[in-house]
Amino acid sequence: MAIVYLILAPVLGGLIAGIDRKLTARMQGRVGPPILQPFYDVAKLFEKEDVTVTPSQNFYILSYLVFMAVTGALFFAGEDLLLLIFAFTLAHIFIVLGAYAAYSPYSYVGAERELITLMAYEPMIILTAIGLYLVTGSFYVETIATSQVPVILYLPGVFLGFLTVLTIKLRKSPFDISTSHHAHQELVKGLTTEFSGATLAKIEIAHWYETVVLLGIVYLFFGFNPLLGLAVIVVAYILEIFIDNTFSRMKWQMTMKSGWGSAAILGFLNLVVLYYFYLGV
Amino acid sequence: MAYLKKSPWLLHYDASSCNGCDIEVLACLTPLYDVERFGIINTGNPKHADVFVITGGVNEMNREVVKNIYEQMPDPKVVVAVGICAATGGVFRECYNIAGGVDEVIPVDVYVPGCAARPESIIDGIVKALGILEEKRAKMKGQEGSA
Ligand code: SF4
């Protein structure tokens, strides 16, 4: 499973990105690029001249890609959810380090914003793991995914909270503060400002891996019914695209409030209710 | 492999344009012309850009800026000068602070005529530039092979 993931996830992630751009264009009344556009972009980046500001940035970005792939491999090997979250966070620390390594005010601002988003979504991700543990009695992805308990019925709040941080994680408006395809002159693409060519392509591929893992976590809530799970993934992603297109970018304070707010209200409250009324199901 | 032609990211810089040509460049991105269907993305970052679209004549203040942006773009790259001002300085040619066309400062690959240049001709110019971009890529690769 893990090996299949390592090979297929970039393909799937790239396709999702392509469909995303097409749907976005259609929502805006445009024709939009071909579905395979993200692959063209990445292939092109590999053709470009390699401009490196500091050699260490390439190392950090490679680590980012590797740890993102490891995260996904852990997930699809059915490993421990906590270990997975750890690898996931580590991957992001590497991209932040890469941006800091480049000595540019733009990438500094991008890196700081990335750290803020990291802070914003982390509590909710951990609450998600705890919630899944409370309901299914295990941190192992395999056990959770194959559990026959209708997890979503016990964790509706946690699920909604997770969807909120999913918007942050997928770098969708209104939370695309650290890097975005749409932020032109005002952000100069934040975090990725100093990366070009093959390095930038690696970031893109890592993002494809990431998308697949995140959608995989969505599936965990519906493990009792695989078809429903897949349907929810599709609906959730379309919802994210819709949100992306209807909101403008907001300040980082809003990202913090949404991330922690959803963790405190949706996530925590859900867990409290679960703890007092249903524990032992 | 010629993926470069399928995914040109462009950087748009206004070196003292009257804003007429700028508006037309941005019009290309609107739903009516929708250049994203050719894979074109308007980036704000020279390090990500393949095509440098520049409007207006270069003035003495931003001579260095234009040069700097051009030098930051990784090879292969092309420059498209949009509008008469970008070609020769146009109506501002006689002004004391205007250096003249963009080619005073950096090499220009394609000139797009018009005052203001129409979105159709801008798209034409960029498509033409893509051909040159591909040539440059092939040349770059040839050099790498022989080196
Ligand atoms: S060519 Fe005409 S429209 Fe374009 S910048 Fe010059 S004066 Fe303005």
UniProtKB/TrEMBL annotation, chain A:
Annotated keywords: Membrane, Transmembrane, Transmembrane helix
Primary location: membrane
GO cellular component, one term: plasma membrane
Pfam families: NADHdh (PF00146)
Transmembrane regions listed in the UniProt entry: 59-76, 81-103, 123-141, 153-170, 217-239, 260-278
Compartments (UniProt record): Membrane
InterPro entries tied to this protein: ComplexI_Subunit1, NADH_UbQ_OxRdtase_su1/FPO
Membrane topology: Multi-pass membrane protein
Plastid among keywords: no
Name recorded for this polypeptide: NADH-quinone oxidoreductase subunit H
UniProtKB/TrEMBL annotation, chain B:
SUPFAM superfamilies from the UniProt entry: HydA/Nqo6-like
UniProt KW keywords: 4Fe-4S, Iron, Iron-sulfur, Metal-binding
UniProt xrefs under InterPro entries: Complex_I_20kDa-like (IPR052375), NADH_UbQ_OxRdtase-like_20kDa (IPR006137)
Domain NADH:ubiquinone oxidoreductase-like 20kDa subunit: 18-128
One Pfam family from the record: Oxidored_q6
Gene3D superfamilies referenced in this protein's UniProt entry, alphabetically: 3.40.50.12280
Domain of life: Archaea
GO molecular function: 4 iron, 4 sulfur cluster binding; metal ion binding
Keyword Metal-binding tagged: yes
Similarity comment: Belongs to the complex I 20 kDa subunit family.
This protein's name: NADH-quinone oxidoreductase subunit B family protein
Species for this entry: Methanofollis tationis
